[in-house]
Amino acid sequence: MVQLTCLSRLLLRRKFSDLGVQFASPDQLQPKPDVNALQFGKHFTDHMLKIYYHESLGGWQKPQITPMENIALHPGAKVLHYAVELFEGMKAYRGTDGKIRIFRPDLNMDRMNRSAIRLGLPTFNGTELIKCMCRLVSIDREWVPHSEASSLYIRPTLIGIDPSLGVAACDSAMLYVILCPVGSYFDTKSKAISLLADPQYTRAWPGGCGDKKLGSNYGPTIAVQQEASQQGLQQVLWLYGEDHLLTEVGTMNIFMFYINDRGEQELVTPPLDGLILPGITRQSILEISKEWNDFKICERHITMKEVIELTSENRVLEMFGAGTACVVSPVGSISYLGQTLQIPTTEWSTEPLYGRVLRTLTDIQYGRVPHPWAVPIDDYA
Amino acid sequence: MVQLTCLSRLLLRRKFSDLGVQFASPDQLQPKPDVNALQFGKHFTDHMLKIYYHESLGGWQKPQITPMENIALHPGAKVLHYAVELFEGMKAYRGTDGKIRIFRPDLNMDRMNRSAIRLGLPTFNGTELIKCMCRLVSIDREWVPHSEASSLYIRPTLIGIDPSLGVAACDSAMLYVILCPVGSYFDTKSKAISLLADPQYTRAWPGGCGDKKLGSNYGPTIAVQQEASQQGLQQVLWLYGEDHLLTEVGTMNIFMFYINDRGEQELVTPPLDGLILPGITRQSILEISKEWNDFKICERHITMKEVIELTSENRVLEMFGAGTACVVSPVGSISYLGQTLQIPTTEWSTEPLYGRVLRTLTDIQYGRVPHPWAVPIDDYA
């Protein structure tokens, strides 16, 4: 860890001020897609940020912004064999005042460094990387949709590129950032999503790394997501253990708003026990709710048995997923061991909690309400 | 699956006979490393095999052998974000008769296809891929070490290359094969390896995919392997659950040879319960042992409690790991919750079982004993 800290300092000293920029030539510029027809992750902007790390060259190299282009990797690169890869998901929002803001980027940087340690990849100085990313977004600022239903998705990625087989820590890595204008994450006509909760599949487990944003947490979920699609369902609700604990939904954290045993409204979400990703939207929802002080809030385990009992007593008011890509996504039903539980999320009230949460977060993100969580990118320069 | 089967047939029909070869030019040829100084996975041969899959173009494309070269990937390629990647490990051996053989490749192909299904990647016809790989090895045949302590490691790799973010099945994939002359997998002076068994880390779990050869099973192990190295130990013995079941050791299956309650010699190895990789060396050792009929054989769970009791009664004779990369690797000690268990694997007998197993397997692989498991590559053409 001593060594990593040193190299982190090296990055701190050299990074943003060393940033080199190579602008795309006119023929490299891509047409911008229709903002009303954006599909998640299909369109990329004109530029990208790259920072190489080579232990043999003293650690982190000069950051470079270049035209968006393919990456050349040795076929033996560890990222291609052993999933030595991790990422983050962030967004830039074009505010009602014309300013482009990013949301709590320091939390993404902290999580990304925790992920890096878990894979034996080098850590870096988050503040400097935020500055470099803001410069990248600034260069591609015309790609930030002029729409409050859309945003520019930011994908920092860190991969191990040592050209050698054998499961071992990397001496060379590449940190890069790409940008995508995005609309809604889910391609759904109805607003509330349907979930498959099948206890035969597990996403993460104690002693594993379900609380890190590693590539290895995602690939194995694809076949289960296909299974859900084949059943006409939209996402997977991941259960864990004999009690069928609710852990995550698709790529989101999960919340339940219900009437507790004392007749009070209560918002619950699974605790950060190592099985779930410590979501930044999750954390923000908990912090906002505590500030409101309008209902009870609890981080605790939720079992499927409890959900079944509560729904049968009409005490579940809402369930929703929360994450950067989807923001807040209401849940309409859960398919579980042959039964379908209907969740009245979008129907029980004209002012559901998920809507209030969504509005509050987007008010901050799009600058409708000034808030320290959303900082204009030009302030980072 | 219907679609996959069709495409698999497409590959069958087109593949080996369609194989295109682009030979490396003289200036692209690499010097061959000293056979006595081979490090695992550091040296690559002059050529590689590539087969692209594009659903939009009807599935698998023409296989090509090209000079060894970098792979160009879109920075949004799913392999770089979501660990949509899997591989196999095989070897080609230069026999005492000069013929080059591969060992039970059909088993690798079957496992690779099971891995592909688990990640939503396309399956393929294994027989045709074996033919293409044999042609590749034949072209680079001078890279197969002239040594019975070395071999040519074959690494078939399948990655998802769709240039789009979002956790979803791939419409485009790349199957490639690279080759490395290799010596011993472990860089160890003493023959018997030392293991760290720390129950706070888990490799795989029920409902996951520990029984598939996916990249996602390896990246998360690197930090734990670093922990072992810091403690001066060579590999990790992966435990599972409250009973601290032995599952795998490093990248190998594990075997224990001991005196059972009835005073008989017995070889045990954990069962294929979904937590461990169904190793081809493991399967071969079980099959050979059954043929010998010299001792009891059992596939069953082994707990650390049992290992402690048996060692205290001097009833553990040997423990060894088994896998393609290491073949058979004797275990000398296990560090577990503050105690060190000494395992007399290399010391209890002048003719230990692990040595007999190793000799039998290598006799087959190097053609010293004719056997249907080891087929000369020229027979596949």
Describe the structure.
The structure is a homodimer of 381-residue chains. By secondary structure, chain A is an alpha+beta fold. Helix content of chain A is 25%, strand content 29%. Chain A has eight helices and 20 strands. Chain A has helices at residues 2-18, 78-82, 105-118, 126-139, 222-230, 280-292, 304-312, 353-365, and strands at residues 20-21, 47-54, 59-60, 64-67, 71-73, 85-87, 90-94, 100-103, 151-160, 172-182, 193-197, 235-240, 245-249, 252-259, 265-269, 296-299, 316-323, 327-336, 339-342, 374-376. In chain A, the strands form two sheets. In chain A, strands 1, 2, 3, 4, 6, 7, 8, 9, 10 and 20 form a ten-stranded mixed β-sheet that branches. At the A-B interface, β5, α2, β9, β10 and α5 of A face β5, α2, β9, β10 and α5 of B. β5 (71-73) of chain A pairs antiparallel with β5 (71-73) of chain B, so a sheet runs across the interface. Chains A, B: Belongs to the class-IV pyridoxal-phosphate-dependent aminotransferase family. Chains A, B: It comes from Gryllus longicercus.
